[in-house]
Give the backbone structure.
Amino acid sequence: MKPATPFRWTLLAAAAALLLTACGKQESTDATAAAQNGTPAATAADPLARGRYLVKAADCAACHTAAEGAPFAGGVKLESPFGIFYGSNITPDKEYGIGRWSADEFYRALHDGVAPDKHLYPAMPYTSYRQLSRIDSDAMYAFLMAQPPVNLASPAHDLKFPYNLRFGMMFWNIPFLKNTLPDASSGQSAAWLRGRYLANALGHCAECHTPRAFTGQLDDAKPLTGAALQRIGAPDITPQGLAARGWSAADLQAFLASGVAPQGSAFGEMFPVVHLSTQYLTKEDLSAISTYLLGDQAPAPQALASINADAAQQAAGRKIYLAVCAGCHSANGEGKPHVAVAMQANSTLRQADPRNLIVAILDGIAAQDFPGLESMQAMPGFSGQLSDEELAQLANYLRATQGGQAADVTAETVKKLR
Amino acid sequence: MTNSANSLSGIATQPLSLTINGKPSGPTQVPEELMMIDFLHEYLDLTGSRLGCGQGVCRACVVILDKADGSSEEVRTCITGAHFFDGKKIRTIEGHAKRNEQGEIVELSLVQQKFLEHFSFQCGYCTPGFVNAATILIEKLKRQPITHDQVEAVINEGLGDHICRCTGYVRYFEAVKDVVMNTPGLVKDAK
């Protein structure tokens, strides 16, 4: 690392900040407030600390670092209804990375979705990153430019027609690229504002948790109400949705910090979010995210509703539960520490949509190591062991007894998810 | 005992019938929540299946489940309820060797014999699981022979989930390879 480079960027960042302040733009006010709150400041000892923290908070690695790949060298596969996207190489390699980009060009990519040589697809969440302050963009740029370059081409996207026509993004951006994202909660405290910046601009929660309309744009009328872009759906994380599944601010913070809460553990696409991003955030920032998600006046977490369900169906479901689930989740659903999560009031069981519960039982969940010494062992999939009817009975037993949800899963529902 | 949920000192029980090592067992009143490993150990005195991790990882506890279509699979008895096996056919480690009328062992199965010849195990705790896994594999190859170049990968796939803490993997694998290569009909292009 050349000592001159980060220093130069720090200067540049400061200059950019001044410039923005001089322009008197609205976003710089938010950004400055945000910047002063919770993000570790760059110090002489580690001038890149701020950029590193922001790159973690923005979870760049989720798409730009492959499981077995070099950091930020790209290659992560993202399947979508439009085809397959691959995360690009964002190391400072001059041939395949962003080594020739200026800080202005980097900001333009985050803010407008336009790279020096092409329009980006919104699989790169510039619809969210657009709200990043220029100071933060520059700090992230400085950090990325200080990483080892990797001379490796990113795989080409494999998209369906007409989505493979990049110039189309110009027209998509006109109606759909907006300066702000709608809020699902209300608040005005400093924590709520900081949380909004973290959740919307950096964490880009909405990209998975807000449903998408016809051409893949976020549906502004339903912010954070949940969506199923991939096999495992992103649940409703509005204040009402979270409270209905028993989440308190403290539990949310524990979940984001450790991946595990009384309501269950992070799985599916949320696991890498915790693994690569949220576990590294400061307590203050996690508290701010919880405040933003639940609002300044957080609704009280709801107790389990009692459900009347067909006794014979429930008995059949319980029999299956005792046969193949209770060994790890225990007979009464309290779970086993470091082995399997509790079923009692589990957040996935409390979702009205049974999709995630059914998919988890069908496919299983790989073993996961969480921060510290926490881990959950592999859950086997039961697609080969349980019929559609049996799986529906099991899901209904769990929903009614542990999730407070109607026992309305049918064999047909299961069949569609196989 | 015809009630569906009899009470045994306050514990709900259900009748359980199954076929173990070719012989019918039950109906026995068994607690609803009992795991299969405990049923084998405590009710039937079949103590050869080993309780290792107790959470489905080590596979020392597996038994062979024989399915109606003639295929078999291993099932982890430490995390599978006893009543899962109601009406089913299973084999445990006690069922592999040939016995005389007094129940004394007169001949080991080929897999067991080869494990001895290759000094495959040291403490032997994991061995019942490995015997069951290897037996399932050999029987599968009798139905669906493989080619020579697939042998090592198939053995790895068949035994790979089993954990052995004495690091005996290599000799287990060598023993199974010996059986595979020297049993006619398992490998299509064997020399």
The CA atoms of residues 50 and 61 of chain B lie 5 Å apart. The mean pLDDT of chain B is 93.
